Amino acid sequence: MTEQNAVTKEKALKLRKRVKAKKPDFVRQESWRYKRLKENWRRPRGIDNKMRRKIKGWPATVSVGYRGPKAARGLHPSGYEEVLVHNLSELRGVNPKTQAIRIAHTVGKRKRARILVEARKKKIKILNLKEAKEAIEEEKRPVEEEEKKEELEKKEEAEEKKKPKPKRKRRQKRKAKTKKEAEKE
């Protein structure tokens, strides 16, 4: 990637950010009036429709003028092109200078860890690294919890060994004596 392309990409990203800040929330017509209508955008098509005719006082409709610059389309705010990765073989075709990876949510912990290791070796940026770190930490937690439980059990066993055992025979004899005394009375 040339220096000029990098500069234009940065400018395009800044411009896109400015344009998005001014862009209104496009809502479906009459969605504010009826609960049954969600705010999901639907193009107004009626012949007398005020939004379609762009009458003053009615919400804005989607049009090409709100579109971001072509150089910034499809780019992550960091400036990298996003690539969705499911396995290690998909990681091979990634260019670390222009592309960043997002690990698919269907990937398990073991394969996710392998992808992370390989991506770090190739110096590829990972966009959902926080989730990956959490997954690795969750994997470690059960192991740590098990170790703590084992340590507690060992301590409890050691404490039980230190305590003198109650003498059951004496208790049984006492109970037997009290029963005989109760019978005599």
SSE order and pairing:
Layout lengths: L2 H20 L58 E5 L2 H4 L7 E5 L5 H14 L6 H34 L5 H17 L1
Parallel strand pairs: 1-2
Based on the model shown, name its key terms:
185 residues; mainly alpha; 5 helices; 48% helix; elongated
Describe the structure.
This protein has 185 residues and is mainly alpha-helical. It has a domain at 76-140. Helix content is 48%, strand content 5%. It has helices at residues 3-22, 88-91, 109-122, 129-162, 168-184, and strands spanning 81-85, 99-103. A two-stranded parallel ribbon has the order 1-2. Helix 3 packs across helix 4. The longest helix has 34 residues, at 129-162. The chain is elongated, with a radius of gyration of 34 Å. The model has no long low-confidence stretch (mean pLDDT 85).
- The helix-strand sequence is HEHEHHH
* Strand percentage: 5-15%
Strand elements, count: 2
Give the termini separation: 106 Å
The Cα radius of gyration reads 34 Å
Strand order of the largest sheet: 1-2
Query: Judging from the principal axes of the Cα atoms, what is the shape?
Result: elongated
What class would the helix/strand composition place it in? mainly alpha
Short characterization:
This protein is mainly α and 185 residues long. 48% of the residues lie in helices and 5% in strands. It is built from 5 helices and 2 strands.
